[in-house]
Amino acid sequence: MTFSKNLLKAFTAVSLVVQGAFALVSSGVTVPLYIYPGDAPACAQWGPVITAVQTYTDLPFYIVVNPNSGPGSTATPDTNYQGCIPLLRHSNVKILGYIPTTFGSRAPSAIVSDANTYFNWGSAYKPDGLFFDEVASDSTNLPVYQNATSGTRAIWGTTAPIMFNPGVTPVAGYFSLANFIVTFENTYSVWQ
Ligand SMILES: *[C@@H]1O[C@H](CO)[C@@H](O)[C@H](O)[C@H]1NC(C)=O
Questions:
Q1: How many beta carbons lie within 10 A of that of residue 61, not counting itself?
Q2: What secondary structure letter does DSSP report for 100?
Q3: Which protein residue's CA is at the shortest distance from atom 11 of ligand 1?
Q4: 41 prior amide bond cis, ω within 30
Q5: Nearest-angstrom CA–CA distance, 25 and 111
Q6: Which InterPro entries has this protein been placed in (predicted)?
Q7: Which residue intervals of 35-187 are DSSP H helices?
Q8: pLDDT over 90, % of the chain
Q9: Is 108 in the pocket of ligand 1 (CB under 6 A)?
Q10: Domains, the chain, with CATH or none
Q11: Minimal-distance CA residue to ligand 1 atom 1
Q12: pTM here?
């Protein structure tokens, strides 16, 4: 099985992403937009990203939104997230909701619960898919991700993009679960 590679720049960090079984896109940019947007409708802190997605319309962007190390404990995010996420939405953009998975020690039910929370956000600000962070890479923890991904797909369907971030190359089983896998996490100079 061969995989094409995407070099994804994220601010000063880079991520090498290997495509999983589902994806057929070329290069793109992943942005871990873990910062607060500022007040809507200006959304000043997200301004450079909002400008970038409108400027580079041929470039796929995968933008990870992360209200509170996940979707937060409330059913919907605060009104600034509700007002600013729509400004990121373009034909070249997939918005991904951040979900921590704690390298296999987080319960799959908690992961699926976060996925369900994002799924039920209002359509104007609902993500297009999900970003699983702190993903394990070994065979011991693979069943956690098989379970969590099955439960997530049962809610989200089979076509929503799911990106895993183990930060290293995982064992083969992970590649059939995620659309994208971040296999390198360091600065660009180290990657070179
Ligand atoms: C995940 O594991 C739980 C507990 O073992 C089980 O009840 C559930 O059916 C599993 N879900 C999937 C989608 O495999």
A1: 21
A2: E
A3: 147
A4: yes
A5: 27
A6: Spherulin4
A7: 47-55, 79-88, 108-119, 142-156
A8: 83
A9: yes
A10: 5-191 (3.20.20)
A11: 147
A12: 0.87
